[in-house]
Design brief:
single chain, alpha+beta, Surface presentation of antigens (SPOA), cell membrane, FliN, flagellar rotation, cell projection
């Protein structure tokens, strides 16, 4: 068998234990642990580091409508069966929440369009000017975000 020093194409290999925990418990040396050092990223040519919000228009997010909530113990949850009724905290007269990525974007009322549920938007949440989204493209992000929201699929109200 050739020694690694004699064969430059062959690397020296260290036998690997099938279970690293056995090595530690047997008193084997621990691997060296050190912090990662990242090089600084370069800024954009404009120097602002901001991206136009339009860059994200084609990114899909899942939008949910929250009808209400309830808190119950795991025992109560496990006792639920077919036909059980779970009473929610929201009144039938309160608007439902329209949510994306756990952030409430708007509120509305549940309606029926054809044979499907839908939500008529009744109020839009105010824009948080301190949010990271606003810093993506500066002061125009709110206007562009509003344009994106109005471009969403809508059903004419009757």
């Amino acid at each position: 068998m050739n020694e690694p020093a004699n064969n430059p194409g062959q690397r020296e290999t260290t036998p690997v234990s099938p279970n690293p925990v056995d090595d530690i418990s047997a008193g084997a040396e621990s691997p060296e642990v050190r912090p990662v050092e990242f090089s600084e990223t370069s800024r954009s040519q404009s120097g602002t580091g901001r991206l136009p919000i339009k860059r994200f228009y084609d990114v899909n997010v899942t939008v949910s409508v929250e009808l209400g909530r309830v808190t119950m113990s795991i025992g109560e949850l496990l006792q639920l069966g077919e036909g059980a009724v779970v009473e929610l905290t929201r009144s039938v007269h309160e608007p439902v929440d329209i949510v994306a990525q756990s952030v409430r974007l708007a509120r509305g009322e549940v309606v029926v369009v054809g044979d499907r549920y839908a939500v008529r938007v009744t109020e839009i949440e105010p824009v948080d000017h301190d949010s990271p989204l606003m810093s993506l493209s500066g002061s125009s992000a709110g206007n562009e975000a509003g344009a994106a929201a109005s471009a969403a699929k809508t059903v004419p109200s009757s």
